[in-house]
Amino acid sequence: MKKLIILFFFTFSVSAQETETEIPFPLTLYNKCFDDLKPMKYISENSSWKDSDLCNLTMCSLLLAVKDPEAVAELKNRIIEITRKLFENGTPIKLISGLDSFEYAEKLNENLKDDNGIIYISIAACTLSEQESLTKEIVNAETNRLVKLKIATSPNSH
Question: Where along the chain do its domains lie?
């Protein structure tokens, strides 16, 4: 599994260097690393991964492929925690996928003052992996919950 991850990052790094293009702002949020996350007890005791390696949505999504139910449960909680951090930092996100989803995300992100300031991130143009699909489901459900909570507790909502 670690070889797969290393290969993924090496490939991403090489392709980024070849094209010399910047990573679009929304995608930087998917890769944003948080240092102040809760410890992941089971994973730190039962795997070679460290909490510091699992500080962003990209890594957590990749590792959802593990077959250990306890590790998957901790990774799901970590995804929720990162989604909350992004929301608290004023950068709530929703993940989208599908044909032309990158262009659609760009269009939706033209005005970040509408739609509760949600930033849309395209994570796949066509087919989602099982892990990406699960990450998308978790992130979007948590963002929806946080937006509803914010609206319900807003002074103007009564």
Answer: 2-14+23-157
